[in-house]
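Re: beginner question about structure tokens

> Can someone show what the tokenized structure looks like for a real chain? I only ever see the sequence side.

Sure, here's an example I had lying around. Input first:
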Amino acid sequence: EAACTRVSFAAYCAGGTPEVPLLQSNSCSASAMPYHSKYNQAEGAPLLCGMALLPIQTSIRGPAPAPNPGQTDDIIQESIDFFRANVLVREFDVEGPADKVLMYLTLYISKCLAKCATISSRQEASRAMYQLAVENFTIPGDRSFPLGPYVSAPESRNEGETIRQYFRQLREETGTRLLDRVFKDNQPNKWWLCFRKRKFMNKTL
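And the corresponding structure tokens:
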């Protein structure tokens, strides 16, 4: 397998192809400092199973509220921008309820990359991302949910259904946006796909 190039975390978060490689090796260093969500400071964000219900920029129907006028980013964009830095960490200290959404999306992006690695065209990848988003998936309270220690089980059937809809909305929009990074110019981007085997906190969805 091709070597994974280690560069500054600023380069990871910029989302572009690294220009100045610092180290060539067969694996990326796990001695990384994580990035936390700025939305931990959002006031009045509702909680679902201890996770923040945050506004997202999307046309996909779901329980996430619409963003404020003029807002150009959201938790999905933040998760994609931070992914290649955060996926290297083994320990992540939760600083607020938005961090729990960031953690979930980091795991989901890893799942998307694993699927994209088997695909050669963006058109095929788009179909695969939709299927991945809507497949049967676990939620807080399920025994196999990987972030169980960080969240609470739904207190009602309504809360369980709402967080399931929230996760699906997040998954669909994340997969759509990720393709702009992974299949830039309709070609697989090795600077993203080389992270597909990394395990954030040694967990998978």
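Each token stands for a local structural state, so reading them left to right follows the chain. The two ends are 24 Å apart (CA to CA).
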